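Appendix B. Raw example, untouched.
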Amino acid sequence: MKIIARDIPPRAAWALEQAGVHPLLARLYAARGVRGKDELDDGLARLLPPSGDKGLKGIETAARLLADAMAQNKRLVIVADYDCDGATACAVGVRGLRLLGAQHVDYLVPDRVTDGYGLTASIARRVAERGADVLITVDNGIASVEGVAEAKALGLTVVVTDHHLPGPELPVADAIVNPNQPGCTFESKSMAGVGVMFYVLLALRAELRARGVFDAASQPKLDPLLTLVALGTVADVVKLDANNRRLVAQGLRRIRAGQMPAGVAALFHAAGRKAPVATTFDFGFALGPRINAAGRLADMTLGIECLLTDDAGRAAELAATLDGINRERREIEGGMREQAMLMAESLFQEDEEPPPAISVFDPDFHEGVVGIVASRIKDKLHRPTFVFAASSAPGKEHELKGSGRSIPGFHLRDALDLVAKRHPGVILKFGGHAMAAGCTVAEQAFEVFERALAQVAQEWLDAATLTRRIETDGPLAPEYCRADMVDTLHHEVWGQGFAPPTFSEEVQIVSQRLVGEAKNHLSIKLMHQGNPVDAIWFGHTEQLPARVLLAFRLDVNEWKGERRVQFLVEGAQV
């Protein structure tokens, strides 16, 4: 474990402070690459334009196709994905197209087990059987070469909206909108699937305006969709670049003002979170997991319906169902995590370093939660990790479905590509991003995959990359250790690529004890610059020395009406 303070460019911090930004926020923003106050302007006018020289490639074609289809009263069917990004993108698509005047909009979401990921040929046939004229993918499709070909053969117009990295061959769709496709000059390559669909709607509205369907004064407002855009963007853990931060900030602002779909309000209630003080943490750790649980263990239709309904009673029922599924997911994950961790730790001796990459499989693992378990192992051992489960799909009993999570410096999808090239036939299919990816392998090929991935990791990773590093914002001045300052920090937009504030300081440990039902959390009383502070280190059981360098985030603990600052420990360097 190595705790490293971020570089804070003094000139940028000074410029932000002179422009009226709070001194602590100025320091935090400067350390994250913000150079001027204008970059912090989260107004809608500052969003990157959908079309034009630096717009999204293919978006004008997509807008024309959709406008033509609506003018001819054609039937539109959205093919979604079964995670939170896919669910929110689907809900944004359905709501937005209806807002803009589409009369016939339906959706279909694949089943994780029986259908697998993306637009397959069988999904295309099911869409055609529904009488659809236009098939729109959200959060998938860029790798669906066969599925798009089947849809075209069936006479469907196909519009692909996606954000995943393309493979060597693009599908032959009527329009592709994806910031990561070759030749796209759109500046924000990190937009989530839901963001891409929102942008398609912006372009469609402009096209309908140009056709005289409505004017600037009478056009439907798409702003209400930003609550869903914000939720899906944060839940998908995409990089929060300036454009994504604006999308998220706009969504948060509306939620805090009570302007949100009934399903979002119901999810806040079910999660025990307070919408008036909503944060990105709520999206990532409260609402997102409840929607994702439907796709992992049940049917993502539940999640999408929750986001589509305007009936508060129906929304409450669906949110309660999703909450129950999420509790079941946590129980399954708990047992699996314990077993998978034992398997991972058996790969090396106690006094040894873990192997450069870790792959584990057990016939009893549930394929719906392999990604979460991979993430937990990756967090603990700081190694690229794949967890596999036996496929439950009919006729696929001898296939293993794996989900992987990576560490900074190891591009997981590129690693899978290299394994596939070196060992043809071992990986049946794969896809994903730098930090998260999935693949399917034949059961008998698991050990070959395990060795091959470890070999690539051995070649690509050095000792520095394999050492866990926590980047922090350095010491916290005692005058900022206040509950109202914590509220100010929580109010801002933080997330992937724009890390939430984490401070580091040498502190004196006064006392420490294990708490929680399983006695697996360390409760600490410490002295921070001469002031007593309570701290907690979740999931940590080892005692700390009397003086230690701690990395910590700030939180507020409320007890009997009193609000006191609490440190959430992220790591320690002895």
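End of appendix B.
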